[in-house]
Amino acid sequence: MPPVVLVLSAVVSVQFGGALAATLVPQVGAPGTVALRMVISALVLWPVVRPRLRGRTASDWRIVGVYAAALALMNLSFYESLARLPIGVAVTIEFVGPLVLAAVLSRKGRDLIAVLAAAIGVVLISGALWTPWSELDLVGIVFALLAGAMWALYILAGGRTAARFAQLDGLAIALALGSVVLLPLGFATAGTTLLEPAILLKGLGIAMLSSLIAYSLELLALGRMSAGVFGVLLSLEPAVAALAGLVVLSQTLSPIQLVGMSLVVLASVTVMSRRRCAEPQDGG
């Protein structure tokens, strides 16, 4: 499967998982939601992948450790920002991370223009321009910025993890490492509510869509494309999130938000078309 298709499939999966998570955060909080995602994902993926642990170098463990930390902190800080900010504002601020990374890593003028178009589109989709500043929470803004920084680190660390670990070994190990840290935090904040059947069922759905399927596809793609291209392709996430919000949460888009979505899609198509032309020269 082409890496572009892998990334787009991951975007759809993670955003519909995010729409489902929006119904769980009010019940168990951000730490509880992230803990359920990572623990269930680790329990499902580990016996399937059975990652090789022996023979790993200290460098391997450092890289996968950074990947695990980025994965856990990215999700935890984003959900914490959602508890304090409008979701459109939080997504816009978070997206600064991968957009800046794509701009820094890209050496093509057309990619830089695409990043700018995607940035404008993300702002229009989010509605951040017309959200009163009096409604913003500085703590929420800090959490959203942290989520964006961790998203950029996740992209970089994911590429190195994919290069060091076969297939999904790195993801399985990272999920297990993150679970060890987040599970106690989840129980400390949500208690035994995490064990209720309805909560576990939602957690399973979120884990499959937002973590297991999405991160597996992203990790496979990161091993076959540059971090810059990957970051710009992720600019589709706000548009897909809007679609998921419409289908799952009955949220609608204004005309100016549709303009923003068009800009984001155009930016992504620009990058995909350049990547397709270059791929025959990559030698597989």
TrEMBL record:
Organism: Yimella lutea
One matching Pfam family: EamA
Protein name: Inner membrane transporter RhtA
Transmembrane segments: 31-49, 61-79, 85-105, 112-132, 138-156, 168-187, 199-217, 229-249, 255-272
SUPFAM superfamilies reported for this sequence: Multidrug resistance efflux transporter EmrE (SSF103481)
InterPro entries on file: Diverse_Substrate_Transporter, EamA_dom, EmrE-like
Subcellular localization(s) per the UniProt record: Cell membrane
Family: Belongs to the EamA transporter family.
Keywords: Cell membrane, Membrane, Transmembrane, Transmembrane helix
CC per GO annotation: plasma membrane
